[in-house]
Amino acid sequence: MATAGLPEPTSPPLDPAGKTVMGASDIARCLRRMAHEILERNKGADDLVVLGIPSRGVELGNRLAAMLEQVEGRGIPAGSLDITMHRDDLRHQPTRAPMRTHIPPPGIDGKVVILVDDVLYSGRTIRAALDALADLGRPRAVRLAVLVDRGHRELPIRADHVGKNLPTSVSEKVQVRLVGHDGIDDVVNIAGGESR
Amino acid sequence: MRKHLVSSADLTRADIESILATAASMHDVQRREVKKLPTLRGRTIINFFFEDSTRTRSSFEIAGKWMSADTINLSAKGSSTSKGESLRDSVQTINAMAVDALVIRHNQSGACQQVAGWVDASVINAGDGTHEHPTQALLDAYTLRSRLGDLDGKHVVIVGDLTHSRVFRSNVLTLTTLGARVTVVAPPTLMPAGIASWAERDGFATGWDLDAVLAGDDIPDAVMMLRVQRERMSGGFFPTPREYTVGYGLTRPRVEALRARKDGVLIMHPGPMNRGLEISADAAESPNSVILDQVSSGLAVRMAVLYHLLAGEETAA
Questions:
Q1: Beta bridge partners of B75
Q2: DSSP-derived secondary structure letter, A146
């Protein structure tokens, strides 16, 4: 049950003054490399569960899982983990409806959970995700895979698998768009900040 | 989202959609082993119930606790109300304890609206007299949507004591906002005065003959039976309970006729049921009945309401 509609993910327009730092083929290559790294680190695909953080992390997670499946020739469970209810900045912004959390059937107890997000920035989203995960079970290990690491961490959190390290200033904005989520070609843009 | 939830009329379609979407996620939490979210940690919610309640009060209490708020229940019996303290003094006393939300049920229509003007806390209407019961309408909408999908164009028939029903008032507002078509049926003595102009404004239909409505061309997608409220039945509104059942009860023949016309017509009741009066045991237990779904939806919807009213940024009153 519980099929009442969930909110459509939003897709604000790209800043036209932005600079493209990754195109569709760059993103695909990064993900493929990350898939191999994940398998190398895990010594195979045993116990892997991929959980994307809504909204674009889910799309990336599904792609990563598909690539892992291609390499290993067997199904890799993929799902999503919403962190809205665990955020530490709820009081500082208007509420928004949470997205769906979907834990694939084998559950996460004793598994190796690969958390996937598009951009790693302050680390607060990941902190919330770790809390959300703890309410759902006890994974054997949790690893973090992100497409872009833009620095400026506010918590002692780092990614295990990074698509691209992108040095940014705080005043800049990193915009990720994915075809399955936003309906436009995959791209990572960087916009705003002082002119350089 | 606004600060108080006093009337269903305050909710826009976007508000309702957002609450129902949140409720869908909260419904998943109910199936977990650890039913706890940190979202409302450090908030205090007082359930102040001047009228009896089982499901509304317990579901507000559980909803608050699952979201890590501290919830306290007060009832008129056992509080200073029984010593003659006025509503205003009572709620201002509570308010002085810096609570974040007051969930209020009261036997006087408009009590919640008044309280909202007296306190700093968020006020949530859990039923005020014969006026409104907005979270009931939201949970009914949630239950309907989880079975029927989008409510646009769906036909919901509401049957029973319309005069005294806050469930009906809130439901008409919420369901029509979501695009459902609503027909209300009641004996003439229990039809509110001036319902014709009201029906025209809010866009719903009225009828006196239950069988005619159920057999009409517009086959209902759901039938919602209202409770005959014995505590408000001192006016001689119908001659005998038996006569009410014959005219307006969801009896076994009526259920069978409905099932013969269309598969899966939902049977709803806000509870508590008077079995054998407005609803037969066959109807309540039939596979079409979603009465217990309404209860579990109530929990999810109340979590969603608490989240939207309390979790976000501080809003001015």
A1: B49
A2: E
Q: Are the C-beta atoms of B65 and B71 separated by less than 8 Å?
A: yes
pLDDT surpasses 90 at A196: no
Question: Domains of chain B, with CATH numbers?
Answer: 8-133+296-311 (3.40.50.1370), 134-291 (3.40.50.1370)
Residue of A nearest to B314 (CA): A91
Q: Is A196 part of the contact surface with chain B (CB cutoff 8 Å)? A: no
Mean pLDDT score of chain B: 93
Question: Which residues have C-beta within 8 Å of that of residue A155, sequence separation ≥ 6?
Answer: A122, A123, A124, A126, A127
For A30-49, write each residue's pLDDT tens digit: 999 999 999 999 999 999 99
pTM passes above 0.95: no
Structure confidence by residue, pLDDT tens digits, B85-110: 999 999 999 999 999 999 999 999 99
Which element (helix H / strand E) includes B145?
helix B134-148
Q: What is the ipTM of this complex?
A: 0.80
Test the A interface: residue of B1, B293, B313 with most A CBs within 10 Å: B313
Rg (CA), chain B: 19
Look at domain A20-87+98-192 and name its CATH class.
alpha beta
- Partner residues linked to B183 by β-bridges: B157, B205
Buried b / exposed e over A93-105, threshold 16 CB at 10 Å, is eebbbbbbbebbe
Number of residues that make up chain B:
317
Distance CA B94, CA B103 (A): 12
With contact defined as beta carbons under 8 Å apart, do B154 and B128 qualify? no
Q: pLDDT per residue over B163-188, tens digit each?
A: 999 999 999 999 999 999 999 999 99
Domain range summary for chain A, segments of one domain joined by + = 20-87+98-192
Tokens representing B169? Answer: 């008032």
Q: Which residues of B touch A101 (CB under 8 A)?
A: 25, 28
